Request: fold
Amino acid sequence: MATMAQSAAGSLDPIIRIDGLQKYYGAFHALKNINLDVHKGERIVVCGPSGSGKSTMIRCINRIEQFEAGSILVDGISLGESMKNVNAVRAEVGMVFQQFNLFPHLTVLQNCMLAPMRVRGTSKKDAEVVAMKYLERVRIPDQAAKYPAQLSGGQQQRVAIARALCMTPKIMLFDEPTSALDPEMVKEVLDTMIGLAQEGMTMLCVTHEMGFARQVADRVIFMDAGEIIEMAKPEEFFSQPKNERTRNFLGQILNH
Amino acid sequence: MIRDFGLLEVLTILQGMWTTLALSAVAFVGGGIFGTLVALSRTSAWTWLRITSAAYIDFFQGTPLLMQLFLVYFGLPVFGFHVSAWTAVAIGLTFHASAFLGEIWRGGIQAVPRGQSEAASALGLGYIDRMRDVVLPQAIKLSFAPTVGFLVQLVKGTSLAAIIGFVELSRSAQIVASTTYKPLIAYGLAGACYFAICFPLSRVSAYYERRFAPKT
Ligand SMILES: Nc1ncnc2c1ncn2[C@@H]1O[C@H](COP(=O)(O)OP(=O)(O)OP(=O)(O)O)[C@@H](O)[C@H]1O
Ligand SMILES: [Mg+2]
Reply:
């Protein structure tokens, strides 16, 4: 899979290029010189201990988080100062949060219709067709008229994925999408993500689901203290991690 | 000459009630529109706008409405603006109500979890869409009770417009009381009129508070 994605993207520029990214929270250096190229169709899993900067890194990609230095290019668009660029990038990049962040005052259907109507100018009728298509895709079309609070955690997270897909994004970012779920609901969300991966979606997933990483990732990234410590194909990453810190981390999360 | 308490007296008080309703409506609408702007300024990304709007709120919360009405009514002509009593009172009440409503709604906006506007941003929604479709509808629900509470105060506060010449509910009762020497009836009637305006507001508030309770 990895070779396929890379050969397909071979001659093309990366769809995400992060170059010398530095991020501070006040005096705290949260990201230290991050460099990362992601090619079209690639699936990348990011892991690392709590506070290592995983969320911060992927949140910089759609500028939900500001950064102090370095550059990020998404599909050729520079995430510079211009708000127009930022909104252009956000329309092409879907994001799924640990806490779902569905809009509680809107129904499931309205959650999915809002962005296409406001951002793309899609008509109400077309937005509804698109929304139903993706709600079917995540296998909950029958919940369309309900409010988020009436759904289980797993269902809410699938709605969140559908909501992002309604914008037909080129890239999907996931920030620990299963961490807030009861164990029995993790699988339904992971299955949805695996389905997306198989369709060729470019994905950046912060997750500690190592089974998922093994199954779909082209590359696994390990972060610690604001740095990318190690990056490798999953086979290598799990069987022969090079860095001491990676080995410790894997030891902790795989042996419990 | 002492008049009897007749139809004319009742009509005078009803006329006053009508003026009170009109003053309240002006304060609600003006305060609502400008209060939204004040709340958005207070939660803006720009420091200078936050500081300016905070000063505005502090000023109007820290001084009596009576003085604010005086300032507008007697102050504007000093700067060459000759305005009618209605314009002056509309401006004064709008200033006053927008400061209070702005502060109440600022609290509401900040009580909406940050993830909500982050999710909206991540979907590509710009500031206006984000506020209109995601943040404000939730903020309004969260601040509904204090908003109605303030509006009830405001209805009663419009009685201060009497000092710049308005014959609203309180003033009309005062006039009737002094011509009939039946203050108990006059003020009792005016009190009933205030109650008739304010009580439904409180009931509506209680009803929506139940309706807005988190859906489960
Ligand atoms: N808004 C903020 N203000 C100050 N410090 C912050 C802020 N957000 C994050 N940090 C700090 O930045 C560091 C990286 O945070 P980040 O959320 O990216 O970690 P993470 O790897 O996603 O952790 P987790 O696995 O717990 O989600 C942490 O030390 C955190 O305390
Ligand atoms: Mg995180």
